[in-house]
């Protein structure tokens, strides 16, 4: 293998990063070895422009992360459900953040009905979100705005999906304090917006879900 194939630059970046962390705090890695105690679970899009830890200013050990195309929470997805169950029941996180982003390519493919390959099966759940909200989306004049709104509606739906898992229902039934949040990130300015889906109990879900779907999102105020 030639040097280029070994991603030399990334390995060098890593060495420099580890040295910087140690220079700032000589015990940093030693402390993390003991145990991770993150208070937050992040469920976000795989998009390279939305780096979870960076945009909320959290360090290694502070954020448990699950990412997939279009931040979907699907009740038959063993991967996402395992992350959720482990973070709620073992790590006992206090907050779950479902974070979408404007300009999401997966959401756009679902909006247009594009054929991209196997990922179309995955994006089927976002197509369902589009169909569920068809009346509202059809009233929006420009495709950019329809796209932005579907990005928001997708987050709202995925928050509801988290809340409807047996993991969350059981956690709330035993009075575990845990809140699910729905946020969206703006690629153009690096800012997060809260979509009003801050759910702390099963009883709150339906009303918040109804209101969040009916409310004009941050882009349509
Ligand atoms: Co995306």
Describe it:
By secondary structure, this protein is an alpha/beta fold. It has 2 domains: 1-34; 36-214, Beta-carbonic Anhydrase, Chain A (3-Layer(aba) Sandwich). The protein is built from 10 helices and 5 strands, in the order ααβαβαβαααααββα. The protein has helices at residues 8-24, 28-34, 52-55, 78-90, 105-112, 119-132, 134-138, 143-163, 166-173, 202-214; strands at 40-45, 63-68, 95-101, 179-185, 192-194. A 5-stranded mixed β-sheet has the order 2-1-3-4-5. Helix 3 (52-55) links the parallel strand 1 (40-45) and strand 2. The chain is globular, with a radius of gyration of 19 Å. 31% of the residues are buried. The model has no long low-confidence stretch (mean pLDDT 95).
User: Judging from the principal axes of the Cα atoms, what is the shape?
Assistant: globular
Major beta sheet summary = 5 strands, mixed
Supply the helix-strand structural class. alpha/beta
Per CATH, the architecture of the largest domain is 3-Layer(aba) Sandwich
Number of domains: 2
Q: Unreliable stretches, pLDDT < 50, 5 or more residues?
A: none
| String of helices and strands | HHEHEHEHHHHHEEH
Per DSSP, the total helix count is: 10
Bound molecules: cobalt (II) ion
* Strands ordered across the widest β-sheet: 2-1-3-4-5
Instruction: Give the CATH H-level superfamily of the largest domain.
Output: Carbonic anhydrase
Average pLDDT rating: 95
């Amino acid at each position: 293998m030639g040097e280029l194939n070994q991603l030399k630059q990334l390995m060098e970046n890593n060495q420099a990063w580890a040295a910087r962390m140690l220079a700032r705090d000589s015990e940093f890695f030693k402390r993390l070895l003991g145990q991770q105690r993150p208070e937050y679970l992040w469920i976000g899009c795989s998009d390279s422009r939305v780096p979870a830890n960076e945009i909320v200013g959290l360090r290694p050990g502070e954020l448990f992360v699950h990412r997939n195309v279009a931040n979907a929470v699907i009740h038959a997805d063993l991967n996402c459900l395992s992350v959720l169950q482990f973070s709620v029941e073992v790590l006992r996180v206090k907050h779950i953040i479902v974070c979408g982003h404007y300009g999401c390519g997966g959401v756009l493919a679902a909006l247009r009905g594009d054929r991209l390959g196997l990922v179309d099966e995955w994006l089927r759940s976002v197509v369902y979100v589009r169909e569920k909200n068809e009346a509202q989306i059809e009233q929006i004049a420009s495709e950019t705005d329809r796209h932005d709104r579907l990005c928001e509606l997708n987050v709202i739906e995925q928050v509801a999906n988290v809340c409807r898992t047996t993991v969350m229902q059981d956690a709330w039934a035993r009075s575990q304090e845990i809140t699910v949040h729905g946020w969206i990130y703006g690629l153009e300015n690096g800012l997060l917006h809260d979509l009003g889906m801050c759910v702390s109990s099963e009883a709150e879900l339906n009303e918040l879900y109804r209101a969040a779907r009916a409310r004009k999102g941050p882009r349509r105020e």
